[in-house]
Amino acid sequence: MKIALISTFIPFIYGGARNIVEWLQAMLEKEGHQVERIYLPQIDAPDLLFQQMTAFRWIDLSSADRVICFRPQAHLIQHPHKILWFIHHIRSFYDLWDNDLYRGCPDDEKHRGLRAALHDADTAALREAKRIFTNSRVVSDRLKHFNGVDSEVLYPPVFDSERFYTRQYNDEIVCICRLEHHKRQHLLVDAMEFTKTPVRLRLCGSSSSSHYPDELERRIAELGVCDRVTLDYRWITEEEKADYFADCLATAYLPEDEDSYGYPSIEASHSAKAIITTTDSGGVLELVQDGVNGFVTEPSAERLAEVMDKLYVDRELAKQMGRNALERLDEINISWSHVLRRLLA
Amino acid sequence: MKVLIVNNMAPFVWGGAEELAVNLQKNLIIAGHDSEVLRIPFQWEPASRISSQMLMVRALELWNVDKVIALKFPAFYIRHPDKTLWLLHQYRQAYDLYDAGQTNLPPGQEGDDIRTLITNADNEAFAESKRIFTNSEVTRRRLKKYNGFDATVLLPPINDPELFTGGQFGDYIFAGGRINGMKRQHLLLEALARTSSNVRLIIAGPPDSPADGDQLREAVERLGLGDRVKLDLRFLPRETYAEYLTNAAAVAYLPFDEDSLGYVAMEAATTGKALITTSDSGGILGLVKQGETGWVAEPAAASLANAMNAAFADAALTRSYGRSARDLWSSFEITWPKTVESLLQ
Question: Which of A89, A291, B92, B98 gives A94 a disulfide partner, CB atoms 3.0 to 4.6 angstroms apart?
Fold first, then answer.
């Protein structure tokens, strides 16, 4: 089949929104499909939104048998067989509208008008789609709430999951993701003050600026926990990541209210490791069930310390939860075979 | 510097322009820059939709880009304060092909309107560009004639010169590249039937359509050339193509009126092979000098047969033509580092 994958991008910025497209492309090509990947630029400035949306309406992809659309506003493209794998709205005009910090424009008559028109245009474009999939329950709920459309959750798997494996359950809780304030590595550092066992913590990742990593380093020194905390402020290779997950006791991933479960928690699950997260982490809670494949605690240092100690003391529990984490992937259908079956249905 | 290459794409079609864009990107990165390719879908049929697709490009917004290098119509309509064009071609059906009666634009007022629109929009895009380069003398002259803009010719370098060294002086003439009526491989067969029996020929490359391949096979049969011709009609791995080329006695390439030198000719000259072409082949005549670097025949079997015989009559002379072809090509100083430097001026 000739399949066009269409998403939007900001040139020279690479991240999760490109992974889902490029990994799917590789999987479709492996299955023998002819795939064309198209990234078009999109910026969210309110005054430029509609002009760009018009451009997307004019794109002619009639040579494709079907199109699969990802990042906004790619869903505006016209095609008789349009499939959406919808990963988010232009959030400042949707779920972030009531948040003065994130809205990014005044809540005035003009922008309320723009918002209403955007909602209408999005809803019309969404209704054109043959099928709508999302990457999480949260996003499906938003589509229902704001646009009144139903959708099916199709969890994005990680690429080449066979490279993740299990070697041992050592003394270390690892957290491998960008070092950013909203990923809240600082809560994990703070938790180390309250742990009663020799449990260790490893934080790995790059950052958009050195500000937050510096803050973490200071905090580690202040609390006097540097003998049990490793801060590895850099982009680690995929091989290193697989090794850390293979060896660790468990992983921790506690972003502040994220839409999706996050690739690190899936990668840890493939390595049969339990996941520590918090009650306000959003999409991660679709994956992690408290006491089954990990722990869901209050976002406080004391509570986090308790579960870290628990896993350190009871290795059998850590192993059992790890096995459950691996099984959980099948339970909620996180696999490329499921993704391809649904997208090509 | 963040350099965005902006090109068109016909979905699911990959050709010379796509290859050029990828190699430009690669060489910008080698020169220490960040580079990505933005590929904008464009379908020229039906002609009534050309204008909306022109507007589409104009409506796109770029951010996080220091410089744009645009290659084709309508990609060069993209708005950016630092835009350089490396013009591969304009919309020829509104210009020289229109004059030649080969246009897809509708007759009468509607076609005239589209043509006027294209000319005016082109002129605006050319005027706002910082610099304009073209890929050939023909493109440069056309731009001057129809739009009145001056440009500098910047011939595309070959992409893998390291493949075109060494080799033997073999016992065959090599004709490589795409197989179709405009490239006139069939004429070579007609000529071969009139040469002395020691002249051998290898034709290798992908036929544009099954009929193009059948035509050659049929001609070999009809002319009884089976023992003197090898047809290898497929998309060749680069190494296989280079092996044919580097071990040939001479190289024949006789497209009808092409704009550019042609990769086949540039690669042959890099290897140091004498060239055979015809007087109406266009761009390649910049490299084939009768009696210096090869033979320029009339586009007829008899004249072409004389050239092919000549290539086998005096091996020393043919070799010396090959050396002259390499010297002439080297004197053009067409390399990727120089090309990148010019484009970023």
Answer: A89
